[in-house]
Every structure is written in structure tokens, then in C-alpha cells.
Recover the amino acids of this structure.
């Protein structure tokens, strides 16, 4: 075991505790969550969704993919969705792929983790689609909580266009979140 490589990986993961979720900060949310908190939310939401969807789910694959989904943001920071329209198509994924490669550089399991990250980004498997649903559901849940706690009207933009989820169970949870909104 290469202790230096392991410590490097641990340090990259730890960086997510200090990487702000930029979208919340831009919208004036005080003490907004960091990427690590969001990553936990995605892991937890994925665990719950896995219990609700039809058919068996490979939990190990699901949870590993959910835990790794934003790891590159420790190097790239969290680029909020509104900024994507100003970037060339595909550049965000290319940049994050490069960051992921750098993070995993000396890890003996680099190819396995990179394959999970790539599977998530292609979105062609049920597990990857479930992680995508968990990612978005955690974001909408957090927007709902921030909105209720702060009355921040800048968060209304999250609800202007209904979002379409991959799984009906995730859609039902989202639809109920929208229905429970008290701020307009």
C-alpha cells in the first residue's frame, strides 16, 4: 500500500468540506452547505430511493457512484448550472474528467473508480440514473429547506420549470416538495 497515495486521496475528499456549493452562495443563502454535505445528501437519498424503486439495485455500485459523483469539484470548484450556458458544450465534463484523473493518479484502484464516474456521466445504466435522481432530489430538498428557513425569494427559480426524474418514485417525492412550497 502506498500511504502517500492514500493520504493524497483522503486530502482530496476532505477538500469537499471546504468547497462551497456556489449556487446557494450566489443566491444569498447564509451558511450554505458545502459539497461534502451535498455528497452525503446524495448518498443518503440514493439509499432511500434504492429501497423504493422496482427491481434489485446494486447498492455497493450505487453508493460508490453517489460518493464519488462530485469528487472532482475539490479541484474545479462547484460550477453552478446557470454558468454552464457560457461554457463550450462538454467542457465541464472534460474538465471534471481531467480533475478526476489527477485525483486518482496514483491510486491502485483508479480505473475502477474512474469507470464508476464515467458510468454516472454517460447515464445509461439504472444505477447511474438513480444517482442522478438522488443528486437532483437532494438539491431540490435543500432549496425547499433554505426557502422555508430564510424566505429567500431567489430560490423560487428552482421551481419555475418542473423537473423530470428518471424514476417515478423520485418524481413523486419532487412533486410533493413542489406542492408543499409556501413561498412564492
Amino acid at each position: 500500500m502506498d500511504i502517500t497515495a492514500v493520504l493524497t486521496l483522503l486530502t482530496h475528499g476532505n477538500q469537499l468540506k471546504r468547497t462551497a456549493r456556489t449556487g446557494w452562495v450566489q443566491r444569498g443563502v447564509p451558511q450554505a452547505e458545502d459539497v461534502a454535505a451535498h455528497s452525503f445528501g446524495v448518498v443518503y437519498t440514493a439509499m432511500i430511493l434504492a429501497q423504493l424503486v422496482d427491481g434489485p439495485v446494486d447498492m455497493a455500485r450505487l453508493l460508490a457512484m453517489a460518493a464519488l459523483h462530485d469528487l472532482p469539484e475539490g479541484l474545479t470548484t462547484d460550477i453552478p448550472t446557470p454558468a454552464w450556458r457560457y461554457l463550450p458544450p462538454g467542457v465541464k465534463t472534460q474538465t471534471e474528467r481531467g480533475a478526476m484523473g489527477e485525483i486518482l493518479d496514483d491510486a491502485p484502484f483508479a480505473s475502477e473508480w474512474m469507470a464508476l464516474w464515467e458510468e454516472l456521466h454517460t447515464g445509461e445504466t439504472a444505477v447511474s440514473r438513480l444517482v442522478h435522481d438522488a443528486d437532483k432530489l437532494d438539491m431540490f430538498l435543500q432549496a425547499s429547506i433554505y426557502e422555508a428557513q430564510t424566505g429567500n425569494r431567489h430560490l423560487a427559480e428552482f421551481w419555475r420549470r418542473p423537473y423530470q426524474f428518471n424514476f417515478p418514485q423520485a418524481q413523486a417525492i419532487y412533486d410533493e416538495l413542489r406542492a408543499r412550497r409556501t413561498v412564492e
Q: What stands out?
A: The mean pLDDT is 94. Residues 126-150 form the longest helix (25 residues).
